Amino acid sequence: MKYRQLVCKLIFLLSFSGCTNQILYQPQKVTQPINAQYPHTEKTLQTKDGEKLSAIEYHSTQNTNNSVVLFLYGNADNLNNCSSLSVAFLPQGYDLFLVDYRGYGKSTGSPSAKGLSIDIQTTIKYLSQNFENIYIYAQSIGAVSLLGTLDNINKSKIRAIVSEGAFFSYSELSKEFLGVQLPWVNYDELALYAPSASNGNTPIPLMLIHSEEDNLISYKQGVSLAKHFKNATHRKTKGNHLHFLSSYEHFEEVFEFFKKNKKYQYVKPKEPNK
């Protein structure tokens, strides 16, 4: 057990060494065909820094109110692999949008904290131009990147967000794994793209899911997120990392959360008088 813990700590240390982003993000290329069981359209999104993101839009025959679920997957995954799980949203009357982050799947570029933030901003911008109601289910590194960029995205069409298995900050995660902050890592820069940097009083309906038994990102990280996002619903669960949607009852819980908040409308806070 001590040997396994040592190996895990060594891998984590290498992942923050600056030249090994591939270890931190573990981008996966295409490993299986696109799920062609449902009507779909393949897309390419262009980011402001010149990358091309591969995406797919699944169309629900029951979508009567121009609604879409954006599914942001976790690390070591891609849109092809997660489509078989996420298509469960289609019979509920939502279109489904999946996008590969830079370096993942067929998307160009290499992943980074800043890059994933740009990718999510690009995706939300596209969806805001094409749908009236946006719901988001985000996992692990996808949830970290989404929550870290909340202050920089167009929130006018977002009705609700569910996050599963995210961590609060890179520095806190480093201390948890290694007991120290690594001297050669620019944690100040990483902090710009972590949930710790976003507005903890965001009014967007937010459910934070984290397992007490998470075998990758400890439950302490979920607690830190819950303390930061004061208005969020904190959903404690069981099972390994990203295990929540393995139960259809949990899917129904997410459906109910989305339906409960379908009339939510974001209002931009007034700027203080100068």
Protein architecture, described:
- The protein is of the alpha/beta class and 274 residues long.
- The chain has a single domain (2-260), classed as Rossmann fold.
- It is built from nine helices and eight strands.
- It has helices at residues 2-15, 21-25, 79-86, 113-130, 140-148, 170-178, 187-191, 219-228, 248-260, and strands spanning 40-46, 52-58, 67-72, 95-99, 133-139, 158-164, 206-211, 233-237.
- An eight-stranded mixed beta sheet has the order 1-2-4-3-5-6-7-8, with helices on both faces.
DSSP summary, beta strand count: 8
Within the CATH hierarchy, at the fold level, what is the topology? Rossmann fold
User: Structural class, from secondary structure content?
Assistant: alpha/beta
Number of helices: 9
Number of domains: 1
Characterize the biggest β-sheet.
Answer: 8 strands, mixed
Q: Based on the structure, what is the oligomeric state of the protein chains?
A: single chain
**Overall form:** globular
Task: Report low-confidence residues grouped into runs of 5 or more.
Answer: 1-20
Terminal CA distance: 59 Å
The helix content is 25-40%
Q: Would you tell me the overall average pLDDT?
A: 87
Helix and strand string, N-terminal first?
HHEEEHEHEHEHHEHEH
Gyration radius from CA atoms, angstroms: 18 Å
Beta-strand content estimate: 15-25%
CATH homologous superfamily placement: Alpha/Beta hydrolase fold, catalytic domain
